[in-house]
Design a protein that fits this description.
By secondary structure, the chain is an all-alpha fold. The protein has four helices and no strands. It is globular, with a radius of gyration of 17 Å. The N and C termini lie far apart (60 Å).
């Protein structure tokens, strides 16, 4: 409730608390823990210290997007989809959205209070065949 933040490990060390090799995907992977309950969304509080955390993440080029959409409410979040393809896009995720994880946190949070208005999804790259057709036209 105080907004106090602590950095326990250097950001250059992979997020070791994530399942499997998800914290070692070749890009910056940060795990941020919020003391709270999946039953009561922490985004319903004041979010003291959030601006400083986001500025720090921005300095590491962490994209301000939430590719998996808002996390589901608890307990539905225990069985929510955890797509490796979506994870590979990078950005912000709830623990309940990380492939291989079995946790249900953070519950139904308001992601717009964290990253601002949802950034538009970028498209998935087109198959190579589409590019071959374009090369023949040009």
């Amino acid at each position: 409730m105080t907004g106090e933040t602590s950095q326990l490990l250097p950001i250059t060390r992979a997020a070791c608390g994530l399942a499997g090799d998800r914290g070692r995907n070749g890009r910056v992977c940060v795990q941020i823990r919020v003391i709270g309950s999946a039953h009561e969304p922490f985004t319903d509080t004041k979010l003291d210290g959030l601006d400083e955390i986001l500025a720090w993440l921005d300095s590491w080029d962490i994209p301000r997007r939430w590719p998996a959409g808002p996390p589901q409410a608890f307990p539905q979040s225990l069985v929510s989809a955890r797509s490796g393809r979506i994870w590979a896009r990078g950005g912000h995720f709830g623990h309940s959205q990380v492939p291989g994880a079995s946790e249900g946190d953070p519950g139904s949070i308001d992601i717009s209070r964290i990253i601002g208005e949802e950034s538009p999804e970028f498209s998935v790259p087109r198959p190579r065949e589409d590019f071959r057709v374009l090369e023949r036209v040009i």
